[in-house]
Amino acid sequence: MYNHNIPIVQGYAITSQPQEPTAHAALQDHNGDNFNGYKGVPQPRKFNDVFFAVLFYAHLVAMACILPMAINSGDQAAGNNGVNFASIIYFVTVVSIVAVGISTVSLGFMMKFSNQLVKLALYFHIATSFAMMILLFMAGSIFGGCICALSFAVSICYARAVWNRIPFAAANLTTALSAVKANLGLAVVAYLFMFVGFGYSLAWTTISNAVLNTYPGMAFLLFLSFYWTHQVLSNTMHVTTAGVVGTWWFAPLEASSFCSQSIGDSLIRSTTYSFGSICFGSLIVALIQALRQLNQHLRGNDDAQILVCMIDCILACIEGIIEYFNKWAYIYVGLYGYNYLDAGRNVVTLFRNKGWTTIINDNLADMVLFMISVLIGLFTGLVGFIVASMDQNIFADLGFESSGGIGFIFGFFIGLILSSIMLGVVESAVSTCVVCFAESPAEFEQNHPELSLQMRDAWRSSWPAEYGSF
């Protein structure tokens, strides 16, 4: 029996002295794992959901076996066709350096002005809806304009409804940013996963071009492979971040450097013991995404447009629900080493027992991170415009006449993608901080008193009823 006040880091209890057994009897679930409904407990070192990890690796082996044949079949398209790759690599390198640099600097900026940025994000959301409404009406799209008008009205109502919750969202964002800044090596891991995903995308494109020409019926399996792999990479990073933030929360001395031990430990755990759980949840989402992709191919049939839209809407709702479940479940996977189903059930039970089901639906911090990503994208787009304008031949070999305009577009998307990777780590940290604050506010106050005071004051201001029973 564990004392539920023992700090738990990456699935293991950290104790400095013997602990008295808790008087609160833990509940037993069907697997015999102890969970009292208010705090997770460490799980033994074991490989969870092994079948799905084996299945994932088997599918990668199958793709690797197909790749050489796909490359051979595409030899006729080989050659650079006179494209100036050196100039393009220079362009991408310059824009990428700027994007990574600004993303890193933005962490400190967001910590200093978190409250103001949450408010600005709400205004940004309203302004974006309004701008889209005007543009669509000017373009003659009445239906699209009406949808954006409705979104504009809803955005205003939403801003008014959540305005009093801004302090807690800002405090939570500041806490998450502090954890990430203390462990910036997480960003290196995130970029590493990005390069792995990029490499797989290139291989997948080669394979799909060769296979679909001969076996078009394989489209679903190819789509499933693509989405499953990228889901696994994304969720592995999410679980790794959860483990590191958990260590920072309970044992800050082990998670307070660029390449802290907690980063390596959490990454190893995510790619070994918890990898099957990550593959399990990722497969469910990938199945829905692959079905949606197939459904998109039916849009060319004018007789089935309404049915296609209805199916896509249903699948999108299911996808959103599962991704939301995974977001919280994987935090418990990273913190305690639960298997996928137990992690999801336990974290939902925690929030229900705490009365936090409304609180976790707030996405104010996510709105800030999206706004920052867009702003960084716009800045790197400007850098891309300048670089491309200085050398008009960068994109000329690709058939583009306006190098400046193409430079802005490419620069914008490079900045958006790279900043989203960095800020995606922050997003995972924000969610982990919510779970840890729900479970272990005392440990937070002991290890990070200033941030704890800020969180408690914001909590009292934003959720006075819930604070009374905290």
Tell me the layout of helices and strands.
Layout: E1 8-9, E2 12-13, E3 27-28, E4 34-35, H1 50-73, H2 85-112, H3 114-138, H4 142-162, H5 166-182, H6 185-214, H7 219-250, H8 261-271, H9 275-296, H10 305-336, H11 340-354, H12 364-390, H13 403-439, H14 441-447, H15 449-462, H16 464-468
Helix pairs in contact: 1-6, 1-9, 2-5, 2-12, 2-13, 3-4, 3-5, 3-12, 5-7, 5-13, 5-15, 6-7, 6-13, 7-8, 7-9, 7-10, 7-13, 9-10, 10-11, 12-13, 14-15
Structure notes:
By secondary structure, this protein is mainly α. Helices cover 74% and strands 2% of the residues. The chain has helices at residues 50-73, 85-112, 114-138, 142-162, 166-182, 185-214, 219-250, 261-271, 275-296, 305-336, 340-354, 364-390, 403-439, 441-447, 449-462, 464-468, and strands spanning 8-9, 12-13, 27-28, 34-35. The longest helix is centred in the C-terminal third of the chain and has 37 residues, at 403-439.
